[in-house]
Amino acid sequence: MAKIKLTLVDAIYINNSGGKVLLEYLVDHLEKRKIEVFYLFDERCSNDFKNIPIDRKIFLRAGILNRYKFYLKNKNRFKKILCFGNVPPPIKLNSKVYLYFHNVLLAESLKEYPLKNKLLKYFKRFYIKYFIKNVDEVFVQTDYVKKLFKEKINNKVKVCELPFYRLLKNKKTTITEEFEFAYVSNGNPHKNHSFLLDVWKKLGELNFYPVLNLTVTDDYHHLIERINDLKIAGIKIKNHGFTDVNDLFVYSNYLIYPSLKESFGLGLVEGVHAGLKVIGADLPYTYEVVKPSLIFNPKDIDSLVSELIPVIKKETILKSSEIIVEDKINELVQKLLEK
Question: Which positions ≥6 away from 331 have C-beta within 8 Å?
Fold first, then answer.
């Protein structure tokens, strides 16, 4: 192997959800441009990225010790490093080091999480704050995350907004006679599924039965049980588990998004791209990426119910939503190419 590579993309802590989607887009972009990059991947992704030659990638078990050993062995090997998993290198390197910070949970309050999860994330936050001295510049997706990072992590390091996302070709949206709503998200507590299920239960009590499409996987047992109980009670919920969002959007009219915290809100952008009207939480992350058709308080069940009923009864016709965030993948790559 060559002693010097143009760049290292360190993605050892990325293996699922939105971070994995972004990583795949970044890797595809780098490889199509034939940019010489070495990749450090999480071993849970060992069945992925097969198009990358074996001499330009390594899969390691995610952990502080394994990552430390890797950097100790390769501290002089790379000209530039992009740490894509929110966490700075554990040692000072003879490289230009960028950190892509895209997990807002590492900077925000975690009140709704169990104690074990809180402790783990607070430890990660402390780790990031301590080792941020090993980073030259931080990249984030929105101005909101930039402000949060400076307030909660470090206000001295340079922070640059470089959002990027991939939009796939969508099938033509089929508007059905029934009102179908979609919420594409995993079942983590901050995603606020319990709130949305309460709203649908209340709508049913008022004799309104719009269809709600969800993507909750079997990992979230309590949510699956609740969904099944509501279905037995006659509430129209279709839970698709992990699925292609394009297949889900083709039958939906609206994207409803009650999440309490988002680093970017890729689902919002994908929904608008697919022709859905966004009914979004009245929170900063929504306004950073889209112009929604309707907003609501994601903690007020009765308020959202009262907003939805005129839409379901066709008394209110919502305007189309708009994407307002720009894909800056080329600017990000240019950062990696600069001398």
Answer: 162
CB atoms within 10 A of CB 114: 10
The answer to whether the beta carbons of residues 6 and 79 sit under 8 Å apart is yes
Number of other residues whose CB lies within 10 A of the CB of residue 311: 20
Contact indicator for 105, 117 with CB cutoff of 8 Å: no
Q: What's 290's DSSP letter? A: E
Q: Is 115 exposed, middle or buried (0-12, 13-18, 19+ CB in 10 A)?
A: exposed
Share of the chain above pLDDT 70, in %: 94
Virtual torsion, Cα 286, 227, 231, 16, nearest 10 deg: 70
pTM (predicted TM-score): 0.84
Find out whether 237 and 200 touch, Cβ atoms under 8 Å: yes
* Burial bucket for residue 32 (CB in 10 Å: 0-12, 13-18, 19+): exposed
pLDDT in tens, 197-212: 999 999 999 999 999 9
Alpha helix locations (H) across 154-283? 193-205, 221-232, 245-249, 266-273
Q: Is 67 exposed, middle or buried (0-12, 13-18, 19+ CB in 10 A)?
A: buried
Residue written as token pair 């502080």: 64
Any bridge partners for residue 160, and if so which?
139
Q: In Å, what is the CA distance from 77 to each residue of 41, 49, 95, 227?
A: 17, 22, 8, 51
44 has a pLDDT exceeding 70: yes
Residue 271 structure tokens: 């929904």
